[in-house]
Write a structure and sequence with these properties.
mainly alpha, 2 strands, Growth Hormone, Chain: A, MFS, transmembrane, 16 helices
């Protein structure tokens, strides 16, 4: 699939658009993990306990839960440029409010909760997945999506390191301000370099004459497709325990593992390195030798073994021993289900499908307060 999509202000070849999409995803995820690394310490500084922090995470999850499917349809109907630009602008608003919450002269707790509101429109990763899906052949899709997962690893490594290091050296507001600047840059790059749409002309014209962005029936129709619902249920049920653990990991590292901000950043960087190695060197090769169904079953089996080990662990060393298995399961499950779900729907609905698919991760944030009750 080669050629050029001339509908961007800065004309890029198809491969250039894919590379830029990887870069934008890495930038957004780096900023996101910078935020994750300082939020628990900022909440403690503002006087919030673990239960209140759970409600803060729940607010973030609920808003993404509500916004994900609608954002997916918006991406399908309005195109990649509008979707990515909107997501980066929402992220910059979140980080600006986060910077303001660090000021002693302002109502910090109110601004901290208010900073969660733009989360409803922060869906850069599903938008990037849509672009990659639209611009790659189905046979090459698992490999292309696994490369997108490398961006997640980069975000975990550099975001966690920068968040912990900058907050220790220059204050807790420094990572939030840097994230604000970077996401504004991402919005500019999206608006100037990403084409209006990455879909074929016939597909896009069909969607322009379709239903509203807020048509819930069209969204639920995709979820109930015979080839979609079983995969979605496997993902939700098998990934829920580890997903809930990862949502509350910042509090677990601070309270259970007794780690400082910089130490928690190093641990998350180790997680990111493992993900880059497994997703870049292992999953892609396995996907060329084994069917997707076999990889899905193996990821669920490893999840079960790792879950038992996590129930018995007592310190951070035990967690580090379990981390490779956890990362393999997460990577295999995400890549395989992404590929299977996008193949199960038409090209005009890939963005909506990925938005519906993001419901499972948002639900973890919605229920994160259970870890503290």
């Amino acid at each position: 699939m080669s050629g050029q999509l001339p509908s961007s202000m800065v004309a890029l070849p198809r491969q250039g658009i894919i590379i830029l999409t990887y870069v934008l995803a890495a930038l957004e995820l780096t900023c996101l993990f910078m935020q994750f690394s300082i939020i628990p310490y900022l909440s403690r500084t503002l006087g919030l306990d673990s239960v209140s922090f759970g409600y803060l995470q729940t607010t973030f999850g609920v808003l993404q839960l509500l916004g994900g499917p609608v954002f997916g349809r918006f991406a399908d109907q309005r195109g990649a440029r509008a979707a990515l630009t909107l997501s980066f602008l929402a992220a910059s608003a979140l980080y600006l409010l986060l910077v303001a919450s660090c000021s002693p002269a302002l109502p910090g707790v109110f601004l901290l909760f208010a900073s969660r509101l733009p989360a409803a429109l922060m869906h850069t990763l599903p938008a990037a997945q849509m672009v990659i899906t639209d611009l790659t052949a189905p046979t090459k899709r698992p490999t292309a999506l696994s490369r997108l997962g490398l961006c997640f690893g980069i975000g975990v490594i550099f975001g966690s390191l920068l968040g912990g290091t900058l907050s220790t050296a220059y204050g807790i507001q420094c990572p939030a301000f840097l994230a604000f600047v970077v996401t504004l840059l991402g919005a500019v790059l999206s608006f100037t370099c990403i084409p209006v749409t990455t879909k074929e002309a016939s597909v896009q014209s069909a969607h322009q004459g379709g239903t509203s962005v807020f048509d819930l029936k069209a969204i639920s129709r995709l979820l109930l497709l015979p080839r979609v619902l079983p995969v979605f249920l496997v993902k939700v049920i098998s990934g829920f325990p580890s997903g809930l653990f990862m949502v509350m990991f910042s509090i677990i590292s601070m309270d259970f593992f007794q780690l400082e901000a910089a130490q928690a950043g190093y641990l998350m960087s180790f997680f990111g390195i493992l993900q880059m190695m497994i997703q870049g060197l292992v999953i892609g090769r396995l996907s060329t030798h084994f069917p997707e169904e076999a990889l899905l079953r193996s990821s669920v089996l490893v999840f079960a073994v790792v879950g038992l080990g996590m129930a018995l662990m007592s310190n951070v060393f035990h967690f580090c021993l379990l981390l490779p298995g956890l990362v393999f399961s997460l990577c295999a499950l995400n890549i395989v289900t992404d590929s299977m779900l996008t193949k199960a729907v038409s090209a005009s609905d890939t963005g909506t499908m990925l938005g519906v698919y993001s419901l499972y991760s948002c639900a973890y944030g919605r229920l994160s307060f259970l870890d503290n009750i």
